[in-house]
Design brief:
mainly beta; 3-stranded mixed beta sheet; 8 strands; about 50% strand
Amino acid sequence: PKVIVVQEQQAVEVPYIDVDLPGADRKERTITAEIEAPSAGYNLEIQDVYAVNNELWVVSRLEEENPSAPKTTVRVSDRVVMNAPDIPVRQYVVGQRPDGSFNEQYTFINSREQIDSQLTSGKQLYSK
């Protein structure tokens, strides 16, 4: 059988966050979470952004919404635009790590509670 995969582009409104941290120069930057998933049945959403220890911590959720979707590698992503200091970004993804080397820059966790104590010591900048 032949499998034809059609990708559609869809225009979506991206949240814009204005962050003012004392003593830090701000610039507009796009924070993107992008995961290589084994099918189009996955969804990735940025849930929260925190300022923790001079880093931006991005907490996303990866869920398989359609287990019967055709098995083909796709990239799922979400993004927010921030007016924030140019500080390092640390990406956490709540969910199961899909196979593939593309996803190695993300820290996958089973639940948000694994990093909750560090998040409460920081400042929440965005929540979905």
